[in-house]
Amino acid sequence: MWTTLAIRGVKPFTVLLLLTAFAHGQTTSTLKDAYKGILRIGVSVNTPQFEGRDPVGDRIIESEFNQISPENALKWQAVHPDTDTYTFDEADKYVAFGEKHKMFIVGHCLVWHSQTPRSVFVDEDGKPLTREALLQHMRDHILKVVGRYKGRIGGWDVVNEALNDDGTMRQSQWYKIIGEDFVAKAFEYAHEADPNAELYYNDYGLEGEAKRRGAVALMRKLQAAGVPITGIGLQSHVHLDTPDATTEAKTIEAFAALGLKVNISELDVDVLPRTTRTDSADVSATAAATANSNPYTSGLPEEMQQALARRYGELFRVFVEHHASMGRVTLWGVTDRESWLNNFPTRGRTNYPLLFDRQGKPKPAFHAVLDAARTPAAAGNQPQTSGDGWVGSWASSPQLVEPQNRPPQPGLAGNTLRQVVHLSAGGAEIRLRLSNEFGTHPMVLDELHVAVPVASTAKMVMAAPGSGAEGVIPTTGEIRPATDTAVTFGGKSSVTVEPGAFVLSDPIALAVQPLSDLAVTFLGGTMPTEISGHPGSRATSFLTAGNAVSSATLPNAVSFDHWYVLDGVDVRGNTSRGSLVALGDSITDGRGSITNGNTRWTNFLAQRFNAETPIANVGVLNEGIGGNCILRGGLGPTALSRFDRDVIGQTGVKWVLIFEGVNDIGGTRAAAAKGEVSTVADEIILSLQRFIATAHAHGIRAYGATITPFGHSGYDSPSTQSDRAKVNHWIRTSGKFDGVVDFDKAVRSEKDPTVLDATADSGDHLHLSSEGYKRMAAAIDLNYFSP
Ligand code: XIL
Questions:
Q1: pLDDT (tens digit per residue) in 468-515
Q2: Could you tell me which residues come within 8 angstroms of residue 369 by beta carbon, excluding any fewer than 6 positions away?
Q3: CA–CA separation, 723 vs 741, rounded Å?
Q4: Which of 245, 233, 512 is nearest to 375 (CA)?
Q5: Choice from 158, 160, 283 to test ligand 1 binding pocket (greatest atom count within 8 A of CB)
Q6: Which residue ranges in the chain fall short of pLDDT 70?
Q7: Cα separation of 545 and 522, whole Å?
Q8: How many angstroms separate the alpha carbon of residue 131 from the centre of ligand 1?
Q9: What angle do CA 268, 272, 273 make, to 5 degrees?
Q10: What is the 3-state secondary structure (H, E, C) of 716-776?
Q11: pLDDT of residue 377
Q12: Shortest-distance Cα residue to atom 13 of ligand 1
């Protein structure tokens, strides 16, 4: 009954699922936390951000970074527009912003040829200044600016970009008027103004052989002359392909060998076609747009997204490896929206160089950066927050598939099954769990692939209101071929799973976004008749004859709404706060929700984690089974018998929310009607205590949810109502749980608390509508998931 997915009286009906804009919640584990003890992680900030006019950007800056650089606010033209005029308005706000958030504050930059008024180099008559006069002017500027923020700005880019690409000195006004020692002088003045500040030489393109040699020679010269220089800033405005990781490593090593602290000072990755001959980050470079120079105006293709993630991962692994000689890595901008690379070197393009997209959502590259913090070189420098870093992102509870729910013709053996699951947490890589728990024979999969599916553009078809049936979003099972990735098991493409067993795949290098869909496609070999699966998928699967694991579309497939074999997807390379298991029955399994719509309460909860604590990345694992009981009978293994498998045995689990008992209680109705005294409430309470104890023994926090109303459903009776009241009273008042979620209160009718509120009711007076499921998710206190 519970697993029947028949849809009757289907009428076309379009529904828009609106994500509620929730208030900003708390974020705990972040970029800066992942790199604690390894590197400072910084970002350049612009005026709207430090003036508090960019809430999206500010939220990211505050939660993710522990160092800031001013994108423009401290440049000469900003603070000293005219010989006798200093304007510190913005700069003051920038420094105050950094202090407020207890960040390491960098000053950028004191002496540069660009964004410096021409008037700096001439006298009142427009004649070039003498060496002495320009040195005096430079000293005035440095003493005034550095002096103003003495003890507050921790490090200064003293000289920016003094070198040409060939390693010779740039013929700037500074060089031409003062000579090469303008560099040494600038450092001396800065040291004079704040003897405790770190002082850096900053430049781009130092990965190029000639320029690197020139810079090393210049640094040596400064050091030999006793110039107080602390470190070097490698700007690192890089491309997807250059400079390669080896060159990056070599560059860091070259400066580290001089005893300089190496900082990555302005990191971004240009993903657009080159419009200039060189990769120079010289701000004066401009290039006209060409026919193909702006190809991604409506979004970055998935394969590029993945390439960018790999690129960031590769760079940060180099940084982690060299962290002993490094101080920080600073991203040049918060989100893609405001990156300078939208206008450099060609104006008006749509670039994607940073870790957060235009809406402020973390990109796969963000997860790749987090993941890099876990490379072996980083071990020992940071607290491991979650074992080996794997977190469960999706799960379904396996049960013995009943004959009526078995795969239709042509069957799984020798044929291709494509299943789509909706993830909660994202990550830089994934792994799969497969089950043959109920098989009586070994199960062989000949090949298995994962891919990102093409999102459905079809309109939702909604069941007749009050029918108690799900609505449907039709999908096609199409994948993006560029993301098609083969999965291996111990390096092999085929795998045998013994009866009663499950298997884990090798890590798969496919970056996945939080709340995204994943297509898992396998070619069945020898398959047992007794198949392990999850009939209540509320997601459409596709079965087609022969080997089609890499086919983008499956035009001849038969489709059905069940899952087989696959029982979990883990992710790594996120903030690893761990996962939450939702242990439950059909109400958790999503009966009454929309097929392919992901409107189970667990889906809405995962959305909240991402909307309110966008980088929190808590995995939400749905271990609901339709018709399931805690104690005895029902469909699938009872909660008592599956607790170890479905809760303790999940990946990275830190919290469990137990929401069961309605089927146990409802199941006593007939006996009670005959006069039998029900003991079910006491038995449930005893079991809940057992669950709490087992969870605690494994360091898992246990939360209890009150049982939702079932008045006017087939479970309704005076005795079942009093059992529900008794169990709910115990959940609310016993104090045994680490926290309580009052689902009952969230969805019951105000007039009659024994029935569901009409808008929360799917129509059968027991299961909820999508609106009801959303309300349940909204009732959960996210503070329960702080570390
Ligand atoms: C850029 C800023 O991001 C832009 O907003 C501005 O228009 C030009 O300068 N090297 C540097 C930075 O040292 O100061 C530059 O910043 C980028 C290249």
A1: 567 888 889 999 998 899 999 999 999 999 999 999 999 998 888 888
A2: 31, 34, 312, 313, 316, 355
A3: 19
A4: 245
A5: 283
A6: 1-29, 375-387, 462-469, 573-576, 613-616, 787
A7: 12
A8: 27
A9: 130
A10: CCHHHHHHHHHHHHHHHHCCCCCEEECHHHHHECCCCCCCECHHHECCCCCCECHHHHHHH
A11: 62
A12: 160
Helix and strand numbers, DSSP H then E, in the chain: 21, 30
- Per-residue model confidence (pLDDT) at position 469: 60
Cα 11 to the center of its chain, rounded Å: 37
Cα atoms found within 13 Å of the Cα of residue 658, Cβ hemisphere only: 34
- pTM of the prediction? 0.58
Which of ligand 1's atoms lies nearest the C-alpha of 46?
A: 5
Query: Cis ω on the peptide bond leading into residue 407 (within 30° of 0)?
Result: no
Which structure tokens are listed for 299? 């979004």
Dihedrals phi, psi of 743, to nearest 5 degrees: -60, -40
C-alpha distances in angstroms, 324 versus 40, 368, 371? 12, 21, 19
CB proximity list for 756: less than 8 A, separation 6 or greater:
708, 709, 710, 711, 747, 748, 749, 765, 766, 768, 772
Pairing type for strands 579-584 and 563-564 reads unpaired
Contact 161, 114 (CB under 8 A): yes
Cα separation of 371 and 574, whole Å?
6
Which ligand 1 atom lies nearest to the CA of residue 237? 18
> What is the SS3 assignment for 165?
coil
Whether the CA torsion 108, 113, 118, 119 is positive or negative: it is positive
User: Is residue 707 exposed (0-12), middle (13-18) or buried (19+ Cβ within 10 Å)?
Assistant: buried
Query: Where does residue 388 rank: exposed (0-12), middle (13-18), buried (19+ CB within 10 A)?
Result: exposed
CA distances from 355 to 330, 331, 578 (A): 12, 8, 22
Please report which helix (H) or strand (E) contains residue 218, including its range: helix 209-224
Q: Strand locations in 380-516, DSSP E?
A: 391-395, 399-400, 416-422, 429-435, 443-451, 461-463, 485-486, 495-497, 502-504
Q: Which residue type, as a one-letter code, is found at position 561?
A: D
Is 160 a pocket residue for ligand 1 (Cβ < 6 Å)? yes
Amino acid type, 465: P
Distance (Å, rounded) from C-alpha 322 to C-alpha 252?
8
According to DSSP, residue 342 is labeled G
Catalytic site residues? 161, 266
What's the burial of 679, exposed, middle or buried (CB within 10 Å: 0-12/13-18/19+)? exposed
